[in-house]
Specification:
Blueprint lengths: L1 H22 L10 H10 L4 H9 L11 H7 L11 H44 L1
Helix pairs in contact: 1-2, 1-3, 2-3
Length: 130
């Protein structure tokens, strides 16, 4: 078990550091560009993640005072409920019209087939009587 842990722990740490580096904004990566940090993490997979956590990322709020939660607050898109969105409601009406047309075609085809079967049965009954 201890042998497996010797391989699993550095691998898990490398994966975590890699994802953390990719999700970090460019202006929060210290000393080197983010691309170089990714290469360091992947190339030196045992010490690279440790170096990233120790020296690669700003752990406190940047000098401008912008935290990730503030960035998300400022870049949030306005969400509209589907029942208030006229484009969504229009697309539903268009889909409904298409579905109704397909249903009418299917019903017409079904009636035609039933008529053909009925005629075949009547012809078979007439031949048996003769």
């Amino acid at each position: 078990m201890l042998r497996a842990l010797m391989y699993i722990l550095p691998l898990a740490l490398t994966i975590y550091a890699f994802i953390d580096c990719l999700n970090t904004p460019e202006d929060e990566a210290k000393h080197l560009p983010k691309v170089v940090w990714v290469i360091i993490i992947l190339l030196f997979w045992i010490v690279g993640p440790i170096v990233w956590f120790a020296a690669g990322k700003m752990r406190k709020s940047p000098a401008g005072g912008r935290t990730p939660s503030e960035w998300h607050r400022n870049h949030r898109t306005e969400w509209v409920a589907p029942d208030d969105n006229p484009d969504f409601l229009k697309s539903l009406k268009d889909e409904n019209k298409k579905d109704e047309a397909v249903l009418k075609d299917w019903e017409a085809d079904l009636r035609r087939r039933e008529e053909e079967l009925r005629k075949q049965r009547e012809q078979g009954d007439d031949e048996q009587k003769s």
